[in-house]
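Q: Hi! First time doing this. I have a protein sequence and I read that you can turn it into a structure. Is that right? Here it is:
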Amino acid sequence: MTHAYEPNGVAELTHLGVIRAIGPQAGQFLHNQLTQDFLLLKDHQARLAGFCSAKGRLQASFIAWRQSPEEFLLVCSRDLLPSTLKRLSMFVLRTAVKLSDVSSEYKIYGTLGTSAEVWGASKAPWSLARSNNAVAVSLYPAAGHTRALWVAPHQVPAPEGPTLDLGLWHWTDVQSGVAQLALAHVDAYVPQMLNYESVDGVNFKKGCYPGQEVVARSQFRGVIKRRTYLGHCTASAQVGDELFLSTDPEQSCATVVACAAHPNGGFDLLFCAQTQAVAEGPLALGQPQGPLIALRTLPYPLRDDI
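A: Yes, that's right. Below is the predicted 3D structure, encoded as structure tokens:
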């Protein structure tokens, strides 16, 4: 399926949900559990943050910000929200914070092009703008077009702009090179495998959090052998599909993390692959002699030195 591509508009993101963390120690709690610094979070900033297991494997990822002095909102994939909320709640103990699912209280839209620029989305990724109880978080661009995540209580009017097909928004997510964790990916990747250190999803200067030693060791001992890449294929791809090298037909070397139909035909995909396999290339979808994957350029450089 292809979409008429008009790089402007708004799409309701029904696949996302919202967790609220509120209380005098809400910031400290998030700081202690996630890969990002929440103690120094400013009102004009949001954070991309991961929630890891003790082995450093991602259990969830969030776009999060401070809603008020003692309140934070965390947007994540709705399919993993219940299990994530339950697991996070296990760590509350005596901490003065309350966690709850407030998805029913908020509406979430993706805004693209000029519809995003009115909210300041031409600024650096993860910057935040506020207006009339709505929050707009600047995201990484897609094919050179600005994008923003818009979140507001239900009583606030939706952002203005042409209606954007949800499938087209998913394509812009792929084009941005930033893979948000969904249920299919739980416990599969350390943050660097999804390039989170290159898109400000990990703070290596903050204190401990679950899996911190594994994440830091992977970074500073240079043992990151898998990265996420952007590619294009003429054939249909699905999340979880495997990619192969023709020289190694017995074992896959990559997995599709996200994919969406390209407006002009074919499919774009983010795939987590062995760096050596990508260097040897090309990769093929589904089997060694399957449709070839053409590499595309990510909208950010991979950081080797943090």
